[in-house]
Amino acid sequence: MSKNGYDRYLDYQYRRSGGFFKALFDAIKVADSDNLPKLAKGFPEEVEAYKTWTRVGVTEFAEKVSPDNSFMDEFKKEYGIDEA
Length: 84
Prior knowledge:
Elements: H1 5-13, H2 19-30, H3 36-42, H4 44-56, H5 58-62, H6 72-79
Helix pairs in contact: 1-4, 3-4
């Protein structure tokens, strides 16, 4: 499975990412309005995933996660997201 930024953020939410992507998402979470666009230049999917999760909603976030992501069943159950 090739992971996109949404998959990586879901891994981060379930504390299954380490090293670089954990540090990246930690930085994205604390970035101010001057630095978040700078991070988005290098990591557009990861920043968009964070924004979708925190500002749009988990249903929209779920639509962009790969269907074969190992956390999707747990995620959908936890957040009450029904299969379409």
